[in-house]
Automatic annotation (TrEMBL):
It is found in: Membrane. The chain crosses the membrane at residues 14-35. Keywords: Membrane, Transmembrane, Transmembrane helix. It comes from Kluyveromyces lactis. It is a single-pass membrane protein. Its main location: membrane. GO terms for cellular component: membrane. The lineage of its organism: Eukaryota, Fungi, Dikarya, Ascomycota, Saccharomycotina. GO terms for biological process: glycoprotein metabolic process. This is MNN4.
Length: 600
């Protein structure tokens, strides 16, 4: 009968199972040696896992170039570039648009360029070493120089098909405008889910998810420069917010004024880049790291957006090589330039010294002790006494201290139940599950979560750089929560953990706020290319859960991705002790410390 079960005799069932078992065993015996040998060959550096015979076999059967390549690819963590930075090819050559392949004649003609550490560091170090600035002078700054703007630069290359306001506020890019823009750019505008735009059903669903209200309120979110649009293009007249106290330095004709993250990740990526470049307020300073030894801080000019071109910094660097030096001969040896800078008078004058740290003799950079001494008063902080202290010397306060004083006054001026949420995440990005919560709303730069290896490297870099930063400046901090557990297991981040956590004593959290809030931290270029913003909450004096919006006290934010380290201060507070703590106290009474793992 159709659909009825066929009865198989018990003897046949046994034979089928036996044959299946034998087949598995045979395949296992055939395949395992192959994979084991391959693993041994490719992991020849791991002596504990590979016999010397296998290492010798790998070397004997592989060319020296292959061995060197694999060794460098898999194990070498030194920072090297395969080629030197070429001023003519990497800076003056036009990468996108109708003039792709041509060259700009002069520095002032360049309309866009990719941020490259070799370029930025060579020019910055050279300028700082000139010795013309006084210790209280402010240096020019532009976010554009210190963030990844590769995809946004493609929009800057457009002439006849410039994008309008709506382009960056629909849930998905308007497909016709996208295709016109890509035709002029000469390549795809983005890569994530780009093929889906050619699927009619997918695109229809994506368009239908657009929020119509934001289009009606577009003036709140975007600015249009009418003078910067082709006369035949009326799409840019949708209308006009205001770029108050900012300068339109990157002339694609539009600029994000207010972020709206209820769009797809590829749309929000370019919207957020536009916001950072054209609208976001500058940091108070940049802090340059010399590994984990010391740091140097320079105040920033917050009133203008002058990049390496508009500030004249790059031209001065070129002129320093002599008027007859051809572009091909100009070297961007940023590591040596940085080493020279560290030895310069400018670095010595701007070295960060925190008097409170020196007075307490708690500098972490003292490697004579394998531990850091914590005192009970490290977990106590009197906000009102600190306000009085700062007000008493108001005429001598640095910009960081003035900002810190204002923050303390603000934090103590309202009840914690009404404290506004300070940190904003890109939590509403569409088709991105819940992962947007792990990215700062301002610096979101695409769906990094889609690349788990890149994600892990970014998180590792964040943790390493924050630890180097606190050590160099004598602050005290330690791993916490999932970050600590990951380190205890194998020294790595858990694959499901998409952020990092650190804790500090409340006194050191306030030192962080007093001396480093709103500073951009630049990693030692001989160790990496990290660029991070330190951002401290406006409710730093609140030590209870309150309304639950501000349990994180500060963040260490990666400018290139928006990933961050959550920083929490530990202190005495009015919060009652939970019964669970007494339970664990009783349970640990008879614990033998010699049985505790990871105690070192």
């Amino acid at each position: 009968m159709s659909g009825s079960l066929v009865h198989i005799p018990r003897k046949k069932r046994f034979i089928h199972v036996l044959l299946a078992f034998v087949t598995v065993i045979v395949l296992y015996q055939l395949l395992v040696p192959f994979y084991t040998d391959e693993f041994d060959y490719l992991s020849y550096r791991r002596i504990s896992d590979t016999s010397k015979a296998n290492i010798d076999a790998f070397k004997a059967n592989s060319s020296p170039d292959v061995i060197r390549f694999y060794e460098k690819f898999k194990y070498d963590t030194s920072l090297e570039y395969p080629t030197e930075y070429d001023l003519q090819e990497d800076f003056f050559k036009i990468k996108y648009g109708s003039n792709k392949g041509e060259y700009w004649d002069q520095v002032k003609d360049v309309k866009f360029y990719d941020s490259d550490p070799r370029l930025e560091w060579s020019v910055l170090a050279y300028d700082l070493m000139q010795g013309n600035e006084k210790s209280d002078d402010k240096i020019p700054f532009a976010w554009y120089d210190w963030i990844d703007s590769h995809d946004y630069n493609k929009l800057l290359s457009l002439k006849e098909n410039k994008v309008d306001c709506e382009f960056l506020f629909h849930n998905a890019f308007p497909r016709d405008k996208l295709r016109l823009a890509e035709g002029e750019i000469g390549e795809r505008l983005f890569s994530y889910d780009r093929d889906s735009y050619d699927n009619d059903k997918w695109y229809e669903r994506a368009v239908n998810n657009s929020d119509g209200n934001v289009i009606l309120l577009l003036k709140k979110h975007y600015y249009v420069d009418p003078s910067n649009w082709p006369t035949s293009n009326k799409l840019g007249n949708d209308g006009n917010g205001s770029l108050t106290d900012t300068m339109m330095s990157y002339d694609n004709g539009v600029a994000t004024l207010d972020l709206f993250d209820k769009v797809r990740p590829e749309v929000y990526q370019l919207q957020a880049r536009s916001y950072v470049i054209n609208t976001l307020v500058h940091p108070l300073s940049i802090t340059i790291m010399n590994s984990d030894k010391e740091s140097y801080q320079y105040l920033v000019d917050r009133d203008s957006r002058k990049n390496i071109i508009t500030s004249g910094r790059l031209q001065r660097f070129i002129d320093g090589h002599g008027p007859e030096t051809p572009r091909k001969s100009i070297k961007f040896d940023h590591i040596n330039k940085f080493k020279q800078f560290v030895e310069s008078d400018s670095a010595k004058e701007h070295k960060v010294v925190i008097d409170e740290i020196i007075a307490n003799k708690q500098r972490q950079s003292d490697d004579s002790m394998p531990y850091v001494v914590l005192n009970e008063n490290d977990f106590e902080f009197d906000a009102m006494a600190k306000i009085k202290e700062l007000e008493a010397r108001s005429d001598d306060l640095t910009p960081h201290e003035k900002s810190y004083l204002d923050s303390l006054k603000f934090s103590t001026s309202f009840h914690y139940a009404f404290a506004p949420k300070y940190f904003l995440e890109s939590s509403h990005v569409q088709s991105f599950k819940k992962y947007g919560n792990h990215f700062d709303k301002r610096f979101f730069n695409g769906p990094l979560i889609a690349d788990p290896f890149q994600m892990e490297m970014r998180l590792d870099s964040l943790i390493r750089n924050y630890q180097k930063f606190v050590k160099a400046n004598g602050l005290i901090s330690w791993l916490a929560h999932g970050t600590m557990y990951g380190w205890m297991y194998n020294g790595r981040t858990f694959p499901w953990d998409n952020d990092a956590d650190m804790q500090m004593p409340i006194k050191h959290l306030n030192l962080l706020a007093q001396h480093f809030n709103q500073t951009v931290v630049l990693e030692d270029p001989s160790e990496g290319n990290g660029k991070f913003l330190i951002d401290v909450s406006s409710s730093i004096t609140t030590r209870v859960n309150g309304n639950g919006f501000n349990n994180i006290d500060a963040r260490f934010i990666d400018l290139d991705s928006g990933l961050y380290v959550d920083i929490t201060g530990l202190s005495v507070s009015s919060t009652p002790i939970f019964d669970i703590i007494n339970y664990y106290k009783q349970q640990s009474k008879n614990v033998d410390v010699n049985d505790i793992k990871f105690k070192d």
